Model the fold of this input.
Amino acid sequence: MFKKKSVYTFLQAQVAAFVGGVIDYGLMILLTEVFKLHFAFSILISGTVGAIINFSINRFWVFKNKSGYSSHINSQLFKFALVVLGSISLKSFGTLVFQKVFQIDYKIGRLITDSFVSYGFNYPLIKYWVFRTKEKQNVIE
Done:
């Protein structure tokens, strides 16, 4: 049975991911179509911008993890950066596979890849590793 708080947190995280994702996706298209960068480089740049937005929303709204300790935020930023690095790598590789192997337009391949990466990689790591608080470590949600 799902806890209401867990469902609410999941939905909030999806809003954060959506906002960061829309900016990420729009910037990827802008950089690829207007500035003629290869989509893999566009994903790297746009993913970084989207990640900064996503981190901020997750930290202050979703997980309400506003500890004033600089070492705490440094730890979160480091962990989040590792998640983002993995996420961007998976998104770039997945989009490339859809485009090269299956001849699917990079914009569609990116959307397909994003759905798997967001739910299967980003959300669990962000919730249970990046923004995990000491009081949550003893409780299984």
Remarks:
- Helices lie at 4-34, 39-62, 70-100, 106-130.
- Residues 4-134 form one domain.
